[in-house]
Specification:
- By secondary structure, the chain is α/β, with parallel strands linked by helices.
- Helices cover about 40% and strands about 15% of the residues.
- β7, α8 and β8 form a beta-alpha-beta unit.
- The relative contact order is 0.14.
Length: about 475
């Protein structure tokens, strides 16, 4: 029998329903797997075994009563930026050490209602600011496929947990690629929904006009199932829409679909030859499955990185102003005044990357520079959105690599912020335009995972997932890493 920790939701749900296994047995299999491999991977910041055991026992009662759904009893890993009531939630930052939210994120509440089992909080770049999970205030997560490599970021902990068999699925957040890029580097499926598809209530904010919550999984069907569970309008989030989410055509294939291939995404700086070759093989497989490949252009791609790293830090500088040591989290001891408390707390609590982005954002919003930087960046954002609108007039979805590189060695880019930021060059356009996107594994390069990205028009997650599923059937499937 295959190890329980290596199975998908689609494989586990009927086993639980038919009482071949219990939710408690499934939980135990994952806790044993975590005990065996997480000392090497370091995907989790903290586990919640007592909560998980209570939820697993409740799931078994639901099955006994015939009240279970497709996610009942399924273990999930939660990124440490999503508030879980009564569970320490720190956004990977020392400044929130000890903070236990008195409320729950809407996405988490919906998973709880569905009967999921919460394994724990996963590591991430501090306040989701990073592309490698090396900016965590606690420690670095390791890529399960090669422990000297990064897992990507900022949701590297959730991606690594799913890849290593330490969770059946995970939740992450995507501000500039923070679900899709670690999904690519860890060889799993990662879904960024349309901005406004999933409520952001209870998400510790980084950049409020860009952040979006989404799933990690080991199959496209699993990702679609989780998305269906967490999506939908929420009165606590005025930017969250009630739009139909019809995923009934997931298995319809790509015959007759037109898939856009943007030349700019194959010409970005630092694109590795192995990544290019793998993605070209994936495009050929989609063409063989009946899709038509068409050339499209996204002419403002070169400006996306600069625009993103003005807009996101500007919003961060506002969002992070609340962390001052007064109401919760870290407070610097023995200070002489209130201002001194603010300064010492933020200096001690925030890491270098967070301080860098706060300073960049504050500068961009300051008097005399707002028009020159922030306002201009927002105009570029509009142009990027128009580029995608024009492309989607010629195609149903845009396909490309997710990351220009495979996973790189831990420490290789920490001294060069620009080199680190370039990891998001193929994903951040989807955030600026508010688009849904999926990353799924294609053929590995040099023994390391490579991601294929599918971007679709706003609120057409069904299209992105349909294309991804068609490739999954014709190409590479996500597997559990051996954690050597």
């Amino acid at each position: 029998m295959t190890d329980l920790y290596a199975l998908t939701i689609g494989e586990l749900a009927p086993m639980l329903r038919d009482r071949e296994i219990s939710a408690v047995e499934l939980l135990d299999a994952h806790l044993q797997r975590i005990e065996a491999v997480d000392p090497k991977v370091k995907a989790y910041l903290r586990l919640t075994p007592d909560l998980a055991r209570a939820q697993a026992a409740d799931a078994d009662r639901r099955f006994q009563a015939g009240e279970a759904g497709p996610l009942t009893g399924i273990p999930v890993a939660i990124k440490d930026v999503l508030c879980v009531e009564g569970v320490e939630t720190t956004a990977g930052s020392r400044i929130l050490a000890g903070f236990k939210p008195p409320y729950e994120a809407t996405a988490i509440a919906r998973l709880r209602a569905a009967g999921c089992v919460f394994l724990g909080m996963t590591n991430c770049d501090e306040f989701a600011m990073g592309s490698s999970t090396e900016n965590s205030g606690f420690y670095t997560t390791h890529n399960p496929w090669s422990l000297d490599k990064v897992p990507g970021g900022s949701s590297g902990g959730s991606a690594a947990a799913v890849a290593a068999g330490e969770a059946v699925f995970g939740l992450g957040t995507d501000t500039g690629g923070s679900i899709r890029q670690p999904a690519a580097l860890c060889g799993v499926v990662g879904m960024k929904p349309t901005y406004g598809r999933v409520s952001r209530y209870g998400l510790i904010a980084f950049a409020s006009s860009l952040d979006q919550i989404g799933p990690f999984a080991r199959s496209v069907a699993d990702a679609a199932l989780v998305l269906s569970a967490v999506a939908g309008a929420d009165p606590n989030d005025s930017t969250c829409f009630e739009r139909p989410l019809d995923l009934s055509q997931l298995e319809a294939g790509v015959k007759g679909m037109r898939l856009g291939v943007p030349k700019e995404y194959f010409e970005v700086a630092g694109m590795e030859a192995g990544v290019r070759e793998s993605v070209e093989q994936a495009l050929a497989a989609l063409q063989g499955a009946g899709a038509e490949l068409v050339d499209v252009t996204l002419p403002h791609t070169d400006y996306g990185l600069a625009a993103y790293y003005i807009i996101a830090p500007a919003e961060a500088s506002s969002n992070l102003a609340r962390f001052d040591g007064v109401k919760y989290g870290l407070r610097a001891p023995r200070t002489e005044s209130l201002l001194d408390t603010y300064l010492h707390t933020r200096r001690e609590g925030f890491g270098a990357e967070v301080r860098r982005r706060i300073m960049l954002g504050t500068y961009a919003l300051s008097s005399g520079y707002y028009d020159a930087y922030y306002l201009k960046a927002q105009k570029v954002r509009t142009l990027i959105k128009r580029d995608f609108d024009a492309a989607f007039e010629r195609c149903d979805a845009v396909v490309s690599a997710t990351s220009p590189t495979v996973a790189f060695e831990i420490g290789a880019k920490t001294g060069d912020p620009l080199a680190m930021y370039l990891n998001d060059v193929l994903t951040l356009g989807g955030n600026l335009a508010g688009l849904p996107g999926v990353s799924l594994p294609c053929a590995p390069a040099g023994g390391l995972p490579v991601g294929l990205q599918v971007l679709a028009p706003q609120f057409r997650e069904d299209v992105a997932l349909r294309v991804a599923r068609a490739y999954e059937q014709a190409g590479v499937r996500a597997e559990v890493a051996s954690v050597a």
